From TrEMBL:
This is GRIP domain-containing protein. The keyword Zinc-finger does not apply. PANTHER family: MYOSIN HEAVY CHAIN - RELATED (PTHR18921), THYROID RECEPTOR-INTERACTING PROTEIN 11 (PTHR18921:SF2). Residues 1-26 are annotated as: Disordered. It comes from Craspedostauros australis. GO terms for cellular component: Golgi apparatus. Its main location: Golgi.
Length: 276
């Protein structure tokens, strides 16, 4: 029995030793935990102090912001009041300006109406004068037209008579060759008379010229010509034969032109073209 007690005592001692070790471990762990908690507490306290400082700074900033907000609100209120006063003053000026503009437009409208009426009266008077002048000009023009028609009729009659005279003269010119002298003949006779040195031959050439030009007895005496045989002298001069006037190529009955001058010019042009 003593042995069993000894064993129980030993077991109890061992149990106690284990409990003691366990308690020591727990105490050691508690001490470590307490140290950790104290460290965390210190850190938390430091954080709280920092937060308190930040809170104090934030509260200060908030107070400053509130003061700024109140100042800005006051400034905005003052500005709004000033703007409202300026707007009222501006509206009053605009009303005065609008009234002045309306009065000015009314005065200008009345002045324009008066000026337009005066211009209308002036233009009506001028139109009456212009109408009277135009009527007088029309009457004068009608009288001039009547005179011109009479003159045109007279000119047509004169033109017809002149055309008949021209046609008759052209007809006589074509049918009569007695008084027509060839220019080449006269040129040759004159050259012979100027180039000849012998007096007898010069006298013969002069006699031939007088015969061709149909000198009268008085004209012959003025140039000291005698009654020589004109035919014998003419036969001795080479080339001294007048060529007959060629027949005209123009159609006398169908000459172009509105008057005598144009017909005469067209006749001469036709004769010149045929000669060329």
């Amino acid at each position: 029995m003593a042995g069993s007690l000894q064993m129980e005592l030993t077991m109890m001692r061992e149990e106690l030793s284990r409990e003691r070790s366990k308690n020591q471990s727990a105490v050691q762990s508690a001490i470590s935990s307490h140290s950790q908690v104290e460290m965390e507490r210190d850190e938390a306290l430091a954080g709280v102090r920092d937060l308190k400082q930040q809170l104090a700074a934030t509260l200060g900033d908030l107070e400053i912001a509130k003061a700024d907000c109140e100042r800005i609100t006051m400034a905005s209120t003052n500005l709004q009041t000033a703007l409202e006063a300026f707007q009222d003053e501006r509206e009053a000026e605009m009303r005065l300006t609008e009234e002045h503009r309306l009065d000015l437009e009314e005065a200008i409208r009345a002045a324009h109406a008066t000026a337009i009426e005066a211009i209308k009266q002036t233009h009506m008077s001028e139109m009456k004068q212009v109408q009277a002048a135009a009527d007088a000009a029309v009457r004068n023009s009608m009288e001039e037209v009547t005179l011109l028609e009479r003159k045109i009729s007279s000119l047509k009659t004169e033109n017809l008579q002149t055309r008949r005279s021209l046609d008759e003269a052209i007809h006589r010119l074509q049918t009569t060759q007695e008084d027509v002298i060839d220019r080449t003949l006269m040129k040759n006779i004159l050259l012979d008379w100027c180039t000849m040195k012998e007096k007898t031959k010069r006298q013969q050439v002069l006699e031939l010229m007088a015969s061709v030009l149909h000198f009268t007895e008085e004209e012959r005496e003025k140039v000291h010509l005698t009654h020589m045989d004109i035919e014998s002298v003419r036969n001795r001069i080479v080339g001294a034969v007048a060529a007959p006037l060629p027949e005209t190529k123009a159609d006398i009955e169908h000459l172009e032109g509105q008057n005598v001058r144009e017909k005469w010019v067209n006749f001469l042009l036709a004769e010149t073209d045929d000669a060329m």
